[in-house]
Design a protein that fits this description.
With 271 residues, this protein is an alpha+beta fold. It contains 6 helices and 14 strands. The strands form 2 sheets. Strands 1, 2, 3, 4, 5, 7, 8, 11 and 13 form a 9-stranded antiparallel sheet that branches. The mean pLDDT is 86.
Length: 271
Amino acid sequence: MLKEITGIRESSKLLERLSLDQSSGELEAQYQGAKPYPYVTIDNMFDAAMLNRVLAEMSPSEQSKWIYHNTRECDKLGQKSAASLGEAGYELASLMHSAPFLYLLSEITGIWNLLPDPYMHGAGYSIIPSDGKFDVHVDLNADATIGLTRRLVVIVYLNQNWKPEYGGQLELWSQDASRKVCAIEPIFNRTLVMEISDVNYHGIAPVTEPAGRSRYSFMAYYNTAGEILGKDAGVHSSMYAPACYHQKQTASKIARRWLPPAIFDRIRHSR
């Protein structure tokens, strides 16, 4: 049941759709006290039936809906456009972009006047395929297309019956990117709220699910207007940790990089 949230009317029809067993003050304390930098995880916040519908919409075989990122540092599929959201994805995005949800995020994080990105640049549906990963990096610090500074990312994980040995954990690293501090399991209906900054290094461990399942999530970024924050005070894309953290590429990873997803999956499953 949703507890009292200061400044947000409990009668909000949108927030009635959330399930929180802690107050925003309790979540704020966890967020601010987290190491190596501010973040908090909330389990079972969203309606499970809605998330299952979102998951059902995420078919990697519909290539027109996806951008395939495959480099030495990153192997993942991202949503091409917010216009490609299905009905359930649109429902979830609308909730995550709503004013009551923005107020809730502000009370948890202390960052006010948050603005969502309705175009969902770099957000929305996200898939890390089997053997995929995302090396240690800090996120893009601004959305140059709309001139806003990125401050938060919220990730909703969609992986049913996911076990630690399947990999895909979100790893949070020290400010010099030399040491992993903790790892977050991407289990179904776990929501992560995480601060974005130029020293908040993180990465996604390789997905090793034995049946070849991919790792699914839904993301939203939140911005503020004003000057760019960070040590260099300039706009940058994802910045990776030193090359010593890179993993060697296997033949499978090289094939995945150069073959279309549908062809690669056909070859893999024919073995």
